[in-house]
């Protein structure tokens, strides 16, 4: 029986007692485990006596001296995460220069850069930072032209960040990137009015597009008619050009040309269906004629 | 004896703990090991020393997003860790997140204001995965990486929607100028490309690589949608009419061109026999002179006599 008890006690000592001792040592500040992106802030008798930032196993006595052993009884260790947090402030009310009521959403990231200040400078630094960002947004973004508000977000975000950063640093916060995530119209009537204007503009565009199409069709047709007329005129001028050039070439030899036209006359006469009367003399006055075949 | 048994129990428990220390990393996973809470670092290297990640950050950003480079355990195993070590497994598969996802509220779409002040509804997804080169940021430095990347992405997206207008390289004015919803809808792929380029630095900042931006719809209000549909219908009709007019014009010009061709052919047909006959006569003239031509003409005139209804013959012309 005692064998079993001893065996179980051995297992318990190993599996339970060692982790317990491990944890107890931490609470007694014999050693402390600091996870990544975590800072331990030590206070003793109401005063901050040091911080532990290096991740891994730390020996408080080497950093804080013998005072570390008093901390479990007369002090406190605060654990602060230094990871990047992100927050989104929705629907911050601003008015544009034109008087349009706008809702602005601002998204920002921040991390704790000074854990001591974060713990003791402000009772609620997160809400205070949020309020500061909100105030800066309203201050920087109010009374801006609507176009600027909508389109210059980068510059405006930087302004907000510049304004908020000094104060937040005092509270241990470092403000990271800040973005105007949303700019929206709050007034439903205004949204409808804009929609109506856009619809009207689209209708105008439709009418213009139709008219433009008709004009382009008319231009295409008239251009085609103009070109076709030019080409038909060219067709009419082709015969005089070609035949004229041929005749000019023939006329270079007058004798041949005369002979040619005499032959053509003969051919044409032969083709004629009309009555042919021949004067066989060289000229009608060459001599007395006899009328035959009557 | 009891102490010996006690020690045996302790040894067995220690062996059990030791055996519990073996682990494997799945094919889609990467492992990060911490010893007493501290991640295993690769020397003193940090994010800004990485040529790929460091180049994505501005000088001011390098101060804020400077993380240590840690050792990443690749898929495989078995590996071993001591009881004081803790294993963090990271799923490296590509994740798809709807852009309407918000850690605080439920919504079916997100709205955005365009350059012409119109409020439109946007829907789509983003695909992302942890950056193996910067796992420290993903695992340790950012409280909620998914919410973070969405906050950043939506901010950039709305900014782009508010400033987007189609830039024409040739400077041509379009009738739809000033109606950015038309441009937005036609250029969704351009916007997605812009989002992917703009979100590239999230790997250095938050340890998240954006795989793709998939904005699928940008919907205006119904009335505007109808007006846009009307524009598109008109545009199609106009294009069809212009196309038809061009076809008709081409046909008219073709016919005119053919008329020219016909006239040329006819004129050539008329001139060709003249030229041929002229050439024949020229050769005749060259060899026989004027007399040869006269003879030929006289010979050619003979058929007239056969066809003549009346013939006047000159007699004794020289004596009359």
From TrEMBL, chain A:
SUPFAM superfamilies in alphabetical order: Band 7/SPFH domain
Protein name: SPFH domain-containing protein
Bilayer topology annotation: Single-pass membrane protein
Domain Band: 33-210
One Pfam family matching this protein: Band_7
GO CC, one annotated term: membrane
Superkingdom of source: Bacteria
Taxonomic source organism: Rubellicoccus peritrichatus
Localization in the cell: Membrane
Automatic annotation (TrEMBL), chain B:
Domain of life assignment: Bacteria
InterPro entries: Band7/mec-2_domain (IPR050710), Band_7 (IPR001107), Band_7/SPFH_dom_sf (IPR036013)
Regions crossing the membrane: 6-25
Cellular compartments per GO CC: membrane
Domain Band per the UniProt entry, residue ranges: 20-232
Protein keywords: Coiled coil, Membrane, Transmembrane, Transmembrane helix
Major localization listed first in the record, in broad terms: membrane
Record membrane topology: Single-pass membrane protein
Location(s) in or outside the cell: Membrane
SUPFAM superfamilies per the UniProt record, alphabetical: Band 7/SPFH domain
Coiled-coil annotated spans: 239-266
Protein name: SPFH domain-containing protein
